[in-house]
């Protein structure tokens, strides 16, 4: 048995399409069975690259491990791999050619390692690579041929390494498709294009700076397509000299990002004045220069439309942005502002996007009122406590407004009444107590409203009646929602609420609702909700996603609600219930939910689960019964959901698993059985073998499953249990049984093919023998001269040709089954009686006769009488010329009967009188075997 298991394991390993039973990784679940395979091996304390990576994987995450070296064969034959993440390991060496088989790889992430040298053949084979990240390494040497294979490379990140000279990156700059290069925080003392040999790079984005950088000089036309320069100093207190003598060398620059960079004031002024195409400017941690009046120079750049001053101290902006009237985007995040001085942005009439988040503003800046062109305003994470009626009077073109994470207590109706174009409003995590009818006014275009985390006690009837276009509403942490509160939300598709068990809301207006999430906070001693509180669920006929979660004490979802309420949601595709049921829901709960694909029930005692629950869910793909006290999986054997792909049964009480359970789930690809108290004995041997060898289902983290029983095996890995002793006797029995079955099948096939007619003949011969014995004892005289055996298709010939001659002219008494068989008697008994009650048997043979089972039995019975009595009692009349090879196998037995009488109707031709005289002579011939045959016809059949 052991060699067989080893062979099976080898076959599984060689098959590139079997990503199952992985020791240290899991495959991320995807709803789409044809989607790319994503392998997750992150945070596993791995010292080496796993050796069981499936060949069809498209993405591998190996980050946050302790891998020290990449070997030549670690990623061999992974021709479909597109993304490889190796960041935050201890990698200090990579064998040359380690990536040679990764021709489809587009992203290689190796940040946070200990690489020092990039050798000539390190990246060999990576012809499709577009992104290479080597940040936070110790790279100090790059071979001139290191990047020769990377013909598709577009982005390279070498941030925080040990590169000494700008010439080290020249091999990179020679790549034909390079667009973005980040070399911030290296050991450069200068960045001077004179150090680069005569060349022209396709680079568009350059990030450069370091603690030691003293000169940034572009004096040669190395970067004709350069669009973005990012100068970001790291913990530096030294000045950087900017040297660009010819401003035409920066004619393509549209973005300049300067952060914590000490460029002399006059030089940075000259730099900004030379950038004729600048569109976006970022000045972070540039407090001193802003105070000196740098913004006056900035505002003179006519092409500038976007200004980012985040993380700079601009507490006094008065009159500094007055001349920046061309701006359309302004970012003042994290600028330590307690207020925006009045008039500081008054002239920015073209401003469309403004961000002032994460400051200490106590009110909406007055200047906001004058920005009529503003479309997006972000004031989140401030100290605003009150909104005035005039705050947004003139910002009538606002589309998105973010006021979350403030201290707003009240919202008055007048605050929002002018915002007719508003689509997104976020006021979450404030101190709102009332809405003051703010949402009763007509906000015709509002689609997203977030009000979670406020202190509103309840919603009244009609509070949202003006939001006719609203699609997404989040009102979690609101205590009560009274009937009619959702009136007017005719287009609402998604609703999130969080309330105590007593419900007061009405869903009747939400006919388009597709997603509903309810969160309960249940405290000790609460009153069980009245069933009438759930009546409004019945109107949610369009719902597709229903989530109901209880935090705190167990909340028992009433039986009537779990059946009658959910019954109306016939288009439900996803149902989640956590800490809701005390026991398993009734078997009829999802009786009408043929569209259900995702069923999640957690923190519920499902030990009494009725398999009928699954009978009407043919499309179920995801089933999560984690933390449900399950002790057996028998319900799956009975349920057999045919489309189930993902099954989560973690944190239950399963000790023994019958592998046949999963064989009844034909589509299962992901199975999670983590944190179950498994038993390490032969009762789980079949399951262990199935986990190791099945070719369809990935058992998530199976190699980490531990044993809880018996006590001596506690803590041991389940898959390390030796199953050989369990299979020894069983395998021998299986061998013997299978051998016997094979032999029996072969023997049965042989007998059927070669001896089936002989066996059938013997059977009827035996029946005739029994009948003949009874007849001899009775001594019954013959009633007929002959029994005529014929096929029904030849009946016309019998009545037209035979009967007129033999009965009317010659006077013989003939027995015909259509005329003389006794009604009600079994057919076989009638045949036997007819043969033994007649002196002779006449067989009228045609091709149809040979194809008839009953005719065959009649001639067999007559043949037995011939052998038994040793008398000539059988007369054969051939109505057709039939070649010997076409004879039925029954008639081949006639070869055993020698010197019998044969008559041929076709040979009689026009002389039928002679034919009937021969028949008469055959009927008159004595019954002794020595009588001479005087009839013509074939002598052998």
From TrEMBL:
Q: How does it sit in the membrane?
A: Single-pass type I membrane protein
GO process annotations (BP): inflammatory response; innate immune response; toll-like receptor signaling pathway
Q: Which UniProt keywords apply?
A: Glycoprotein, Immunity, Inflammatory response, Innate immunity, Leucine-rich repeat, Membrane, Receptor, Repeat, Signal, Transmembrane, Transmembrane helix
Q: Which SUPFAM superfamilies match?
A: L domain-like (SSF52058), RNI-like (SSF52047), Toll/Interleukin receptor TIR domain (SSF52200)
Point out the signal peptide segment.
1-19
Query: GO CC: one term?
Result: plasma membrane
Q: Which GO terms describe its molecular function?
A: signaling receptor activity
Q: Do the record's keywords include Cytoplasm? A: no
- Residue stretches making up the TIR domain: 782-923
Primary location: membrane
Q: Which InterPro entries match?
A: Cys-rich_flank_reg_C (IPR000483), Leu-rich_rpt (IPR001611), Leu-rich_rpt_typical-subtyp (IPR003591), LRR_dom_sf (IPR032675), TIR_dom (IPR000157), Toll_tir_struct_dom_sf (IPR035897)
- UniProt similarity note: Belongs to the Toll-like receptor family.
Annotated protein name in UniProt: TIR domain-containing protein
Native source organism of the sequence: Anabas testudineus (Climbing perch)
User: Source taxonomy lineage?
Assistant: Eukaryota, Metazoa, Chordata, Craniata, Vertebrata
